[in-house]
Amino acid sequence: MKTPVRVAVTGAAGQIGYAILFRIANGDLLGKDQPVILHLLDLPVAQKALNGVIMELKDCAFPLLAGVVPSDDPNVAFKDIDIAILIGSRPRGPGMERRDLLAANAEIFKVQGKALNDFAKRTVKVLVVGNPANTNAYIAMKSAPDLPKSAFTAMLRLDHNRAVSMLAEKAGVEVADIEKVAVWGNHSPTMYADYRFAAVGGESLAAKINDETWYRETYLSAVGKRGAAIIEARGLSSAASAANAAIDHVRDWVLGTNGKWVSMGIPSDGSYGVPEDVMFGVPVVCEGGVYKRVEGLPVDEFSKGRIQHTLNELLEEREAVASLLS
Ligand code: NAD
Ligand code: LMR
Predict the structure, then answer these.
(1) Which residue has a Cα nearest atom 1 of ligand 2?
(2) 235-268, pLDDT tens digit by residue?
(3) Cross-referenced Pfam families, in alphabetical order (predicted)?
(4) CB of residue 263 inside a 6 A radius of ligand 1
(5) Distance 313 CA to ligand 1 centre (A)
(6) Is the complex ipTM more than 0.90?
(7) Among the four residues 20, 241, 245, 321, which has the most C-beta atoms within 10 Å?
(8) 66 CB contacts (<8 Å, ≥6 apart)?
(9) How would you classify the pairing of strands 182-184 and 192-194?
(10) 186 lines ligand 1 (CB under 6 A)
């Protein structure tokens, strides 16, 4: 039997929490032979509901669930953890943009970044889901100076999965056969879902679709505004697909992508004209528990404009939280 891995989930009593915990306990995150101990953080006011979720987890009798540590204190919840999935924060409602949540949510990630810095394992892997995810991940990273910057990532995987799914539908091909899609930048409508390198069985997907007008005028905004479309339809923001994307992100980071590209928000190293430390969506491959940016891709004029546009928004968000971090 392997040693259990400690996985912290914040906002555990919320709707994404309800969709993700049972899948983690079932082995979908780290494999069917890997026991887990769930560290569940939520606000004091949510502890009763959290207790109900824990009762349900127990009622599943998951063979891989080796323990549950509930808490309303990040210093307790993050003690000795290997993985942190930071979901807990306010979601947006109809008519809001994700950056409107900065005022409500930024402080949470400062406090939690510090708690990770002080209590998590030095090898911890952190995924920020709570919106605005890129800038919250940036805040957490800046609040944890003793941890490597590479420990902090933001979730672009939901955008990546949406981007692949919509391309598959348009081209009439299987999702699993599509390679080399990249989503650049911010998890917001400014993101750039880039299909220039996408291929199916070695054939260019752009050539197969052969409809650049559809790509530029319909597809890009459909991917970018999918979150708002779901809020409009459900009255609530995406939950099961967000939980699924978080599982995909962490599983691929830990277990590897076998050379396949996925999109992750990671701290910039200055490449592609993105200033260092900006938490920016890029294509990566993962191997041996490490993500590696796909380097040296050509950037044409259209892509340059799109990358700059989403970068500008992230720079504005960075400016908006500068006083919080000073
Ligand atoms: P929700 O309101 O259902 O649940 C949020 C939970 O977080 C609640 O239980 C709340 O008590 C808890 N919480 C609030 N502040 C907390 C804190 N300081 N510490 C711990 N827990 C805290 O919301 P949800 O639908 O689960 O969404 C959560 C977040 O995820 C929102 O910000 C949402 O916008 C975001 N989201 C991101 C993506 C993405 O792709 N990055 C996708 C979907 C949702
Ligand atoms: C999403 O993309 O579905 C989430 O970020 C929720 C939202 O506010 O759109």
Answers:
(1) 227
(2) 999 999 999 999 999 999 999 999 999 999 999 9
(3) Ldh_1_C (PF02866), Ldh_1_N (PF00056)
(4) no
(5) 22
(6) yes
(7) 20
(8) 4, 35, 36, 37
(9) antiparallel
(10) no
